[in-house]
């Protein structure tokens, strides 16, 4: 008790306490995540098959299930210094307001212009692209955080950046687009007429508002058909979880410094970039039998890949130009209802996290949209930070756990990932304030339609 | 040289190094700022005359020209911990890009949801209103930072918050309005039909897009005509400069810790809240003859109160309901051209800063709008932070000074106030990108019209 009372509002690591290497969670997994498959041969993808799409060193990171640590290059450490370490915040005001004996912490990743944790991997991917001598990179973005982060990273290294932005976000978030433009990126609403796959989708569904899966297809096509370009992705992939491990490593170092052991670790989950990063070193201890933690993934009830998806091989994109990945998936054609605001709208989930979930090493819950925004507003008023809708899924679950502690009297240490800020999500907040937001959840019948289209892989 | 090379990217003060008292610059001024005058009697305003408009303790702070330090109440220190200390950042990337031998630093005040330094005074004013047992406060806001900050502070203390927002900002920045709403504030576009002064102005100028001076009049009228309400203001006043001294005190403490002495201190200036706060302890040393610094105020060429205004008594508001203040002013009817984006649009300037400028203790420069946005974009790409248009005035001047150092070979230490972020200013950025922004500057003839209307005070 005494110790906890001395805990500062915010804990920052000193420069000499900062992690110097990323941690590769897969090295400690006995059952490795299932490999990416070539959709033609159904054989595991080899590095040379991926080389037309991805940067060389990133492919090496993607396929390496054994090396536990990857040294962070000096140039990336320099860039990290511009916005890292991020603070581990003790949510004293929230605890008081909830009247809970639980101790609540959050790792705040929103203190950079991209507004989220996405910059951690964007700068790494841009670095390796530059090192390979490329002209530029292509990518997709949904809510816009990833595209913003990548445009910042590319601007830093002088790389061209071509972003396909899911059409409904492009229209709902013109300011995100303008931020990317400020950093020199070009932004195209997806589906577009610029690519074959875009033209095909528009011909079939002229009124589509787009999807991440479709924007991925366009970005990949553009990369492989342009000289000196490669495709980069902000979530799902093993390499992304590797780079994002900086979040968890800092969090763990801060807790060690405070001599606190978290009991419950909570992260929102779309493709898994933040969750995989936040939990990495803790899950590592769990896998090695050194410690135990409750780890909870929180996803939108309107896009419930963990809680209502199936664990199977599926396409990563709508155009089926990417390798097959084994993951919890709703089917590559699944698009959350138009009323769904914010990100966390990907149909699948990181293969690594899927395997860990499948093994029962973590839990998953889904939360309804209006509950998420209630939690977001509550948090804003109490803790001062206006959270991103994505992050607010984790806030919602953390509040639920803290309320349970109030009922049981338990003084648990709860930590959640506050992945970003909601400054570019005010249209969603406005809908919430005006009562125009609903809690539509896909029916079993709807999900069955997409499930039936899963590729057959033995 | 060796010492400078070891300077970290960001310097944060430890909790025990944080200022515990605000510094009142006026205590060290031999020639005090001119007092507020009662517009009827032209006699200095007494505390009891101000008591219907302002909170009691804030009036005491406003009128106190002698007490050098005011202890910061514990509740405010607690709130400050949620987002302070703010970092003093060494702009290594900017220096390198400019190829300058100058060392550039900035004090970054944007890491809170209000997006600017305004929160420093908002929380203080809300605290004293709460302590006095009030129901709520009224205020005006232009670009929206102050209104956002006040709504956050009022939410924290459970006070009602009524904001009159300059109509053109209300329309151009719907998201700022929505943030205030998230924090529970009510927001009315000004001029409105809610107040007598608003109705009068609308009758005379039905198409007006509003002004700060007009919104102030409405907020004051609302406060004095509502039971349990007082009016609060985010700039210009002595009390605001007092609260904002936290910026300068932290900056000075960080420099002392680094064993660096700044040569040039640069701040943007609208009403003077950031500038007055940033320079306070440095100007104090200068007034006491302990050190010398070049201090530069940077204002928009489209609203040039320091560089083209006159030093005279003037109304603080359009409706002439406030006391008279002696200040550099363009005349209380002055409104910057509609093309002017962002804040720094007040017709006058803090009395304290005006007196210091009049005594030759600081310099002032004006910069054109497109130069400001050029500097903003340059800075964003190099340093990663997307700056507010207001802050970018200081960036622009800092870059100019650093370029001069490149030419002269001098290794000066330059520090500027990066007051906030530009996330809610993307419409202005968009205009800049699309070439729709101009550099309109008021003509001498235009300024003469407003100047002729200054009140006659002997």
Key descriptive features of the protein:
homodimer, about 450 residues, alpha/beta, four-stranded parallel beta sheet, 19 helices
Give a short synopsis of this structure:
2 copies of one chain form a homodimer. The first copy, chain A, has 458 residues and is of the alpha/beta class.
Care to describe what's here?
Two copies of one chain form a homodimer. Chain A is α/β, with parallel strands linked by helices and 458 residues long. Chain A is 42% helix and 16% strand. Chain A contains 19 helices and 15 strands. A seven-stranded mixed beta sheet of chain A has the order 1-4-5-15-10-11-14, sandwiched between helices. The first copy, chain A, has a four-stranded parallel beta sheet with strand order 8-7-6-9, with helices on both faces. In chain A, a hairpin with an 8-residue loop joins strand 12 and strand 13 (324-329). In chain A, helix 3 packs across helix 12 and helix 12 (238-258) packs across helix 13. Chain A starts with a helix and ends in a 6-residue tail after the last helix. The A-B interface holds A 8-10, 12, 15, 81-83, 93, 111-113, 115, 152, 155-156, 174-175, 178-179, 181-184, 377, 380-381, 383-386, 421, 423-424, 426-427, 429-430, 433 and B 8-10, 12, 15, 81-83, 93, 111-113, 115, 152, 155-156, 174-175, 178-179, 181-184, 377, 380-381, 383-386, 421, 423-424, 426-427, 429-430, 433.
